[in-house]
Fold:
Amino acid sequence: MNSAHARIAVVGAGLGGLALARILQLHGRTVTVFEREAATGARPQGGSLDIHGGTGQVALRAAGLLDRFRALARPEDQVWRVVDPVTTAVLPISGPEHDDDCPEIDRGQLRGLFLDALTEGTVRWGCAVAGATPLGDGSWRLHLDDGSTEDADLVVGADGAWSRIRPALSDATPDYIGVTLVETGLDDCDTRHPALSRLVGNGTVLATAAGKALLAQRNSNGHLRVYATLRVPQDWQVAAGVDLDDAAAVHTHLLKMFDGWDSGLLALLRHHDGGFINRPLFALPVPHTWEHVPGITLLGDAAHLMPPVGLGANLALLDGSDLAQALLTESTVDAAVRAYEDLVLPRSARAAAACAGVLDDLIPPTDG
Structure:
C-alpha cells in the first residue's frame, strides 16, 4: 500500500498516538484517532513529566509545538533531591539520569497541546476498540465495543498498558513488578502548606529506606503530587485489612508503615487533600519484541511498558515521531513499519532494562 494514500487508524489518544497524528497532518496525511474516553478531560491525566531534549523534545519539534511547549514548561522544576528519611539531610546521590534540558510540564497540559493542534474531528471520542483482525490483503478491521467496524491500511496500537491491539502481534501481557504507588496530593501548597512547599522545593524530593519510599513532585498551580512507594504484594491491602476506598484507613496504615520517619516528610501524607489512589506497577517482558506483521504495529506503553522513572512518555513521543517520519519517507506502509520497528524494538529494550535498574536504585529490593 502506498504510504501517501494509506488509511491510518491510531488506537489511543495518548501522547505517542497524538504525536504521530499531528506530524502526519502537518504533512497533509489523513489519520483518525480512536479513543475510548468520552471527551478530553474525562479523567485526570497524571502528574508532571520531564521532557528530554534528545527524545520528547525531538518529537515536539517535528510536530511544530516546541515553542508552545516551552511557553508552558517549567525548567525550574527539573531538580531532583534525595533526602535521608529520618533527618531530611540531602544525600550525595542523584535521581534518574537524563538530559540537562528536561523541563517539567503537567501531562494534561502536554496532551492538550497536541489535541489543540489537530484538525477538528481527528479524535473520535467514545470509540472504544475491542480488537483488530486482518483482512488478508495487509489491511485490518477494527472492532469497536458498540459493534461497529472500521477498516484501515495501517493500525497503530497506541492504547497503553492493556492494549487491545497488542494481542494481534504478541502474546505478552504486563506483569506486576512488586512495587505499588499509593498516590495522593496537596493543593495550593505554597499558601496552605508552606513548610511542605519548602521541603519539596522546585522539582522532586525522594526519601527511601527498607523497601519503601516517599516521593513528592511539584506540579503546576501550586499542587504537590505525593507517592508512597511500596515493595509489597499486589494485594497488600488484603493482608493489611485495609479498604482502599476508606481514605482514613489508608492514611492510618501508611503512617504506621512509615513510622520513625521525619515528621515533616510524613506531613506529605498527613495533610493530603482528598483520598488515595492505589497504583500497582506493571511492565512488559524485557525485551518485548514481535515478528513483523503487515499493516499493524505498536508504540508507547503498548509496545514497551516499563517502570515510570522518566523515560516512558519521552519514548512514546519519540515513537510517534519516528513512525510518522518513516511513513513520510518510505514509499509503502510496509517498508515504513519495518523501518520503524527495526529502530524502536532494540531502543525500547535498552530503555526498559535501564528503567528497571533505576527503580531498583530508587527503592532497593528488600532481602528475602
